[in-house]
Amino acid sequence: MKLGAVLAASLLLTLAACATPAKTRYYTLSGVSPPSATEVTGVPDYRVAIGPVTVPDALDRQQIVLRVAPNRNAILDDERWSEPLKREIPRVLAEEVGQRLPAARVAVYLQYGGQGADYRVLIDVLSFESVPGESITLEAAWSVRNRAGERLREAHSVFVERVNAPGVTPLVSAHAKALDALGREIAEVLDSLTRAKR
């Protein structure tokens, strides 16, 4: 009798464990550059709008997508971005560029509503690939336009960051480093454009 009760209790615990849903984890692409020590007060010298940013349709989802074979992706239902990449990438880039250009007021394009920015940076993310335990690749075509919409500069950037640990967290950290490098390139171009106007 006691053995039957123990077996029944064990079976119930096993079934309950199987029925417990996996805990969903959320990730964000926080910036990796240290905050600028220079604090600028008053009116900025110029304004920069980052965006809009486009991402491949396969990545335009909340779930994190991994490249598991040359022609196969895996969509992780329990590993998710805290916000869509096409909103998070411009936010992170605005932070990165703003830290490098203290004389500029840098914001996401939607915050300006397309108005009032002296420069606008449009970004087309061509690849945002994550290969577990190996590497990430960020490939982007981007351009800088002036207030009139004239294209001042075009660029194509590719960043590969090695990942030596399993799991999603190292991949997310590597993507943050790649975005930091892209932010550095954008800031350098904007800085050269503003210097040329002086």
TrEMBL record:
PROSITE patterns per UniProt: PROKAR_LIPOPROTEIN
Q: What is this protein called?
A: ABC-type transport auxiliary lipoprotein component domain-containing protein
Stretch forming the signal peptide:
1-19
Keyword Transferase set for record: no
Q: What are the protein's UniProt keywords?
A: Signal
Organism ancestry: Bacteria, Pseudomonadati, Pseudomonadota, Betaproteobacteria, Nitrosomonadales
Q: Which domain of life is it from?
A: Bacteria
Task: Indicate the segments forming the ABC-type transport auxiliary lipoprotein component domain, all copies.
Answer: 27-187
Q: Which Pfam families match?
A: ABC_trans_aux (PF03886)
